[in-house]
Amino acid sequence: MRLSTQQAPWLQAPHAVAVLDALEAAGGQARFVGGCVRNALLGAPVDDLDLATPLTPPEVMAALQAAKIRAVPTGVEHGTVTAVYDHRPVEVTTLRRDVETDGRRAVVAFTTDWAEDAARRDFRLNALYADRSGQLFDPVGGGLDDALAGRILFVGDPEIRIREDYLRILRFFRFGAWYGRDWPDHEGLQACAELRGGLRTLSAERIGKELLKLLAAPDPRPAVRWMDRTGVLGAVSPDLGGLERFEAGTALTADPELRLSLLIEPEAEAVRRTAESLRLSNAQKSRLLAAVGTEPPVHLGMGPVQALAALYRTGAPAFRDRLIRAWAEQPGRATEARSLLEIADAWSRPQFPLTGDDLADAGVPRGPELGQALRALEQAWVDGGFRDDRLALLARLQAQLAGS
């Protein structure tokens, strides 16, 4: 079988052609491999191009430099050099076989055998290669059929593949979420369940990134259900498990971080534990904490004035996140939720018309009293729907000062 340029326009992309020409000029064969081949078969978008070659990393570097293509040694110990042509990257990796694995990382030796390289990959649909003409190669057998049928089958024995790298447990569910139709494979599922304890040996960053990739799938709910049934979800973090809320909310948002929030119980400590166990960034942690915040309250029964006040205090992103969570918990109140989301979409934060200097000029002593007076005026302005302008607020202040 051969990929057409309509299926795989990247076969003729200038950066891909330039890198292939450079490798072949150095006497090396090269084939596209993995995700780009799989996605072209499935009609899915292709973001990254990966090439495999028998050339060693030093030979790849020399070939690229001879062709005046920038060569970046991104992972030479594992055989990977990134070629950058016209600001577009192509990852070039030497054919490899595993020498030693410990469930987290592998020691590899380079080879010239395409079958050995294919045999060390995780799933059969990821062990597909294509040459520059689009001719497909399926060294392990079954990968092409798997891709077309939506089957996620490990290369060889699932237990062996998982023990080589326990992240493959999460990858099994991630690829199931993105590409699975005839899924899950019982043997693979059982191996993931039995070996889930190995996830504890992985870095939190790897687990967090893999989980967010899974949650970015168009519909990750079936995969998450299987993760829960097999105990994998609890092995990722014991604070994940709000499946009913997640099931309802996933249809409301495609945002993987918000979908993660839906899996976490609405408690700040649960969010902090999850953020730590997944080693999320500070920005991600802050967002998840804001999504479960309770002050000011965001609920589906609030009116427009309350909504505007909450938007002012929380900001539109946190308001939307809290609203989606509330909608997921009360899916029957779609009309109210959509109305409030429309208010958030049209929201533009107004500027409070007064400053501390305005109050000082009006006779309020500087210090704690001034700060307290300024906050009180701002609260009244917010509660009034932001209608008072600067003159109205100054008049309010003068009336307060005259009455004190």
Mean pLDDT: 94
Derived from helix and strand composition plus strand pairing, the structural class reads alpha+beta
Largest sheet: 7 strands, mixed
Kindly provide the radius of gyration, computed on alpha-carbon positions and rounded to a whole number of angstroms: 28 Å
**Which strand-content bin applies to the residues?**
5-15%
Fraction in helix: 40-55%
- One letter per element, helices H and strands E, the order comes to HEHEHEEEEEHEEHHHHHHHHHHHHHHHHH
What is the architecture of the largest domain at the second tier of CATH? 2-Layer Sandwich
Number of extended strands = 9
Identify the overall geometry: elongated
Instruction: Determine the CATH superfamily of the largest domain.
Output: Beta Polymerase, domain 2
Number of DSSP helical runs: 21
Low confidence ranges: none
Overall domain count: 4
Plain-language structure description:
The chain has 404 residues and is of the alpha+beta class. The chain folds into 4 domains: 1-149, Beta Polymerase, domain 2; 156-257, Hydrophobic Seed Protein; 293-345, no CATH class; 356-403, no CATH class. It is 51% helix and 10% strand. It has helices spanning 14-25, 35-42, 57-66, 114-119, 143-149, 158-164, 167-179, 186-194, 204-215, 221-230, 232-236, 243-250, 256-263, 268-277, 282-291, 304-314, 316-329, 334-345, 356-361, 368-383, 390-403, and strands at residues 31-33, 50-53, 70-75, 80-85, 88-94, 96-101, 106-110, 129-130, 136-137. The strands form 2 sheets. A 7-stranded mixed β-sheet has the order 3-4-5-2-1-8-9. Helix 1 crosses helix 3, helix 13 packs across helix 15 (282-291) and helix 14 (268-277) packs antiparallel against helix 15 (282-291). It is elongated and about 90 Å long. It starts with 13 loop residues before the first helix and ends with a helix.
